[in-house]
């Protein structure tokens, strides 16, 4: 660092002394002094790490598998969620929240999800209930409450097949935190998950619509009023980008009467129109750079080399197929089959489907949902291969 500052000083004294500066640069190099701007970039740390779990960084350069390995994908999802539980000890939308929202639906074909995940959610729910009211509304806390309710509802719907007291408690807590507007407080800095109040409202609606028998048997007038407030918000609020519109379509498939047939069909056509020639979908085509969060990722997104023609990714391809199938598009529809073909050809060696982060070039946590969504999509399209036997201890 001293050499760099000295070289700049020499150059500023007299521009004609450039040869001296070049000589100095050569001397610094030979002497083993490394300039800050010449340092090789630090390798990214493991994507998930805790105890004996170490999941390597996600990378666009990772080779593709010749055939889909459901086991590798399942192991990645479980290891990532368990590592997050252990290292962060919280519920987050992009990892263990996604595990609980997606993994239970794979129970029939892939076996039941890890019971430890449900225990973590129940414990987190108890701890959340002990927080001060102001802390329950702070930062990502509302999102945590919503994902706890949504995850427990999915577990009930797909694993035990009956409503649990814990899910009822989580739904009541979630709705207690609802704002007068009908949605919840949200950060606006980490797209796509922790950046949109509309996004949170769709997940809350799915929790309400998925919990077995909860909505149909609801008698509490206060909770019923909150559910109607949520539905009204989703009907009248304008989503900031097409990604949130896709989530609205998903919620409408779970909540009876949320959207009429006409508006639902418009959203179906929007999703289908964005399908790429290779059969996949790209999350970047569902929002302009300034439309994610408060627009604080716009510079990063506009600097990406694929800005004009973003490639298909696992997250959006899986999500699009799930939403279209739940919206009534048959599995044998050629457009669905084109998406399935893309998923079958693009799983990476680690079991993940690559999706570049909208936020940084370090963690790429979106590859987590970018792996969970494809598994569920393949299952819903009758294209999920058989799960290979477990060959190593978890």
SSE topology sketch:
Elements: H1 2-13, H2 18-30, E1 48-50, E2 53-55, H3 70-88, H4 93-102, H5 107-110, H6 115-129, H7 133-136, H8 141-160, H9 165-176, H10 197-210, H11 221-236, H12 242-254, H13 261-273, H14 298-303, H15 314-326, H16 334-345, H17 366-380
Written overview of the protein:
By secondary structure, the protein is mostly helical. The protein has a single domain (41-380), classed as Alpha/alpha barrel (Glycosyltransferase). The protein is globular. The protein contains 17 helices and two strands. It is 54% helix and 2% strand.
Keywords:
disordered N terminus; 394 residues; mainly alpha; two-stranded antiparallel sheet; globular
Quick structural overview:
By secondary structure, the protein is an all-alpha fold.
Q: Would you give the CATH topology?
A: Glycosyltransferase
What's the total helix number? 17
Order of helices and strands: HHEEHHHHHHHHHHHHHHH
Strand order of the biggest β-sheet: 1-2
Silhouette: globular
Query: What portion of residues is helical?
Result: 40-55%
Give the oligomeric state of the chains in this entry, treating copies of one chain as homo and distinct chains as hetero: single chain
Could you tell me how far the N terminus lies from the C terminus, measured between alpha carbons in angstroms?
46 Å
What top-tier CATH class fits best?
Mainly Alpha
Rg, Cα atoms, Å:
24 Å
Largest sheet: 2 strands, antiparallel
Q: Which residues form runs of ≥5 with pLDDT under 50?
A: 1-38
Domain unit count: 1
CATH architecture: Alpha/alpha barrel
Q: For the residues shown, what is the average pLDDT?
A: 91
Number of strands: 2
Provide the β-strand percentage band. under 5%
The structure class reads: mainly alpha
């Amino acid at each position: 660092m001293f050499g760099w500052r000295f070289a700049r000083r020499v150059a500023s004294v007299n521009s004609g002394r450039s040869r001296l500066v070049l000589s100095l640069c050569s001397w610094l190099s030979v002497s083993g002094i490394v300039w800050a701007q010449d340092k090789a970039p630090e390798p990214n740390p493991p994507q998930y790490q805790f105890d004996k779990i170490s999941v390597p960084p996600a990378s666009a350069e990772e080779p593709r598998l010749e055939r889909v390995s459901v086991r590798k994908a399942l192991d990645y999802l479980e290891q990532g969620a368990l590592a997050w539980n252990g290292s962060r000890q919280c519920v987050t939308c992009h990892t263990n929240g996604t595990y609980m929202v997606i993994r239970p639906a794979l129970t029939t074909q892939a076996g039941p999800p890890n019971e430890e995940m449900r225990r973590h959610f129940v414990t987190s729910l108890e701890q959340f209930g002990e927080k001060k009211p102001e802390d329950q509304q702070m930062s990502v806390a509302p999102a945590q409450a919503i994902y706890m309710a949504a995850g427990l509802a999915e577990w009930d719907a797909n694993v035990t097949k009956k409503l649990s007291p814990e899910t009822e408690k989580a739904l009541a807590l979630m709705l207690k935190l609802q704002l007068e507007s009908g949605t919840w407080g949200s950060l606006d800095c980490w797209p796509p998950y922790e950046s949109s109040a509309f996004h949170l409202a769709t997940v809350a609606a799915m929790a309400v619509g998925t919990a077995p028998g909860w909505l149909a048997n609801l008698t509490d007038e206060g909770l019923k009023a909150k559910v109607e407030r949520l539905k009204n918000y989703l009907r009248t609020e304008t989503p900031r980008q097409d990604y949130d519109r896709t989530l609205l379509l998903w919620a409408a498939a779970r909540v009876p009467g949320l959207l009429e047939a006409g508006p639902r069909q418009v959203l179906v056509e929007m999703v289908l129109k964005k399908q790429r020639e290779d059969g996949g979908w790209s999350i970047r085509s569902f929002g302009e750079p300034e439309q994610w969060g408060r627009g604080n990722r716009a510079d990063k997104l506009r600097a990406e080399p694929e800005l004009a023609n973003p490639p298909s990714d696992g997250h959006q391809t899986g999500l699009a197929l799930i939403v279209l199938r739940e919206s009534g598009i048959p599995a044998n529809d050629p457009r669905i089959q084109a998406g399935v073909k893309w998923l079958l050809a693009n799983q990476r060696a680690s079991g993940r489907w690559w999706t570049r982060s909208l936020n940084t070039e370090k963690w790429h946590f979106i590859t987590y949902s970018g792996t969970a969504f494809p598994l569920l999509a393949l299952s819903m399209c009758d294209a999920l291969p058989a799960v290979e036997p477990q060959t190593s201890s978890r």
